[in-house]
Amino acid sequence: MALVDICDVLVVGGGMAGVSIGCELAADRRVLVADMEHTLAYHTTGRSAAMFLETYGSAAIRALTAASRAYLESPPDGEQLLSPLAMLYVARPGSAPAIAELHRQVSALTPDATLLDGDEAVAVQPLLRPGRIELALLEPAAMAIDVHAMHQAFIRTLRARGGSIAVDASVAAAAWSDGRWTVTMTDGRPVSAGVVVNAAGAWADQVAGRFGATPVGLRPLRRSAFMVDAPPGVTGPMIDDIDEAFYVKPDAGRLLCSPSEETPQEPGDAKPDELAIARAIEVINEVTTLDVRSIRTPWAGLRSFVADRNPVVGYDPAVENFFWFAGQGGYGIQTAPALSRTGAALLRGDPPPADALARGLAIADLSPGRAIRPTTH
Q: Which tens digits make up the pLDDT trace of 174-227?
């Protein structure tokens, strides 16, 4: 008979979401993080070109991002996770109102965010082609995040606190009995857990079904990326089109570019979209002086959202001791420190982190109940 793994919390998913909340919970719980792949962070986390942007996303996302800065600037083991890289949102002719609205939304929480006219934008980022930018917004304190180092930092702390990690470990079946979950993994190994945390990324709705929970309507969206050679001496800021036609990010002497597309697909191993990349190159060549003719190393990842694009964090309203930690979309890296503290507090029944609340986080904006849509017959 297979030996039963016994834990207080089983976290399904070993990307940034899973290891971050697992790390927080391991401070006072026996935690097992189980990932379906042979290598952790194989899908979304491992393919992220993350930035720390306090101007990005909804009010809830911006609050969580701001509350994550302290950890990212001074992680527990002292490893450097951030490097300076300003962000420049640009508006092509006709799109200036979107930049102005973004500035209105973010100026209270990010007072150094500055509006620039077209000439000022070119002066800040000489890659831009003169006359092609109507208005821009500069976030000077933005940072590039070392995603791999951050993921590893959470893993080290998780293990130091006694947490365990299992790979090649998918959920095959689950049953609730006598106040605990018995979860059967695809290799036949049973796991007994008091609480299950669903941090399965693009697969979170599928995992929920195995526990009898109603899906929250996650939509995995493919985004492609590619590298191009950079002219000598190119530095920041990163360029992000306000209409999401492209972005260009200086990265280790090259330029990491993306069409910023969001193409729905089933959970799986995402492949780059050649047509989307070709369209992005056309716009990049129109807006910048790069004159891209060839690319290097295309890839793609999945970003999973529910309808309002806020994360889904909290106990399922109908399934006992099943806890959602999903729907983090394109914000999961930069919000991980504060969101994992928030999730761990809600799981324990503790008050949410005061620093996140002080920056405007409303816990109702994360509630699974807001996203679940009962099945109709």
A: 999 999 999 999 888 899 999 999 999 999 999 999 999 999 999 999 999 999
Of 98, 21, 50, the C-alpha closest to 366 is 21
Same domain, 293 and 227: yes
- Provide the percentage of residues in the chain whose pLDDT is more than 90: 86
My answer on whether 157 and 290 are in the same domain is no
Length of the chain: 377
The model carries a pTM of 0.93
Strand-pair partners of 59: none
Determine the Cα–Cα distance for residues 141 and 118; give it in Å rounded to an integer. Answer: 20
Non-local CB neighbours of 222 within 8 Å, separated by 6+ positions? 261, 262, 263, 264, 265, 270, 271, 273, 300, 301, 302
Does 223 share its domain with 257? yes
Beta-carbon contacts of 277 under 8 Å, excluding residues fewer than 6 positions away, are 224, 226, 259, 295, 298
Q: Residue 377 — very low, low, confident or very high, per pLDDT cuts 50/70/90? A: very low
Could you tell me the residue range of the domain that residue 246 belongs to? 86-141+219-305
DSSP symbols for 161-178: TT-EEESS--EEEEEEET
